[in-house]
Amino acid sequence: MPELPEVETVKRGLEPVLRGQKLVRVELRRANLRFPFPEGFASLLEGATVQNLSRRAKYILIECDNAMSLMVHLGMTGRLTVLQPEGGAANLGEFYFETGADTKADGPHDHVVFTLGNGVRVVYSDPRRFGMMDVAQTALLHEHKLLRDIGVEPLGNELSGAHLAEKFRGKAAPLKSALLDQRVVAGLGNIYVCEALHRSGLSPLRKAGSLVKTKNYDPRLDVLVRNIKNILSEAIVAGGSTLQDFVGADGEKGSFQQRFTAYDREGDDCITAACAGKINRIAQAGRSTFYCSVCQK
Question: How many angstroms separate the CA atoms of 7 and 57, rounded?
């Protein structure tokens, strides 16, 4: 499943394509993805001009000039592809989009097609259909049922050691599970939590509350926050991580997986200085956790 860096990469790739463009046609190829499309989905968007794109957790928010916003979640295999008019190619911002082999957008998994005023089409494809789309009033997005309970953004100033201490106090849940709770931190996923915990020397198995004293908290929470921010920023620069299906809006795959120190490295030597351990894999809440039992305490 695409995590925050991958979603941010897609959002940044779409910005120069969509911003300022009119949505002249919205074509639905089916009645639902993970959830049914809302009634009047296409009519709420057609004729509107895109003003801004943003991201909240793993949701891409596309704000239009008619006071409505399109919400997009890529699920596990969702992909947004930009198709130029036949025979054309363009340099759009930092991304180069070229006419692909399939310019008809008629594949079996192409479920939604947005046609822009300049002839460009943005195609949403999703083999497993675990993604979702919704349309809501922009002014009320913060009250949307999928957004209202989401925690602080990990790249913002609100994420701090003190914030984690407040959320972790008295928690018996494993540290990794606590970090994956979207009510605590928005958008953190399995890959980058494994990486941040390994870089911070913290075991994913220890109780989250063990890092919080009666009045103070373990300074390693500050280290953890710094590593979360650094890893996510590095991954965004690298275009995210490509493990199976992820590609950016420009068709390029991410490369951060080449820098993994723990995730998907079961049996490999730990690269932490002076550590003689190996990377182990265990299952936590149905997900694979990769860590070193020697240097992560």
Answer: 9
User: In angstroms, rounded to a whole number, what is the distance separating the alpha carbons of residues 112 and 122?
Assistant: 8
Degrees to nearest 5, angle at CA 79 with 50 and 122: 35
Collapsed DSSP state (helix, strand, coil) of residue 22: strand
Active site residues: 2-3, 58, 287
Residue 164 phi/psi, 5° resolution? -65, -40
Span 161-292 CATH architecture = Orthogonal Bundle (1.10)
CATH 1.10.1040.10 fits 4-143, yes or no: no
The answer to whether the beta carbons of residues 232 and 5 sit under 8 Å apart is yes
Per-domain boundaries in the chain:
4-143, 161-292
CA–CA separation, 270 and 138 (whole Å): 47
- For 201-248, the DSSP string reads T--TTSBGGGGB-SS-B-THHHHHHHHHHHHHHHHHHTT---SSS---
Q: What pLDDT digit, counting tens, does each position of 96-114 carry?
A: 344 444 455 678 899 999 9
The pTM score is 0.86
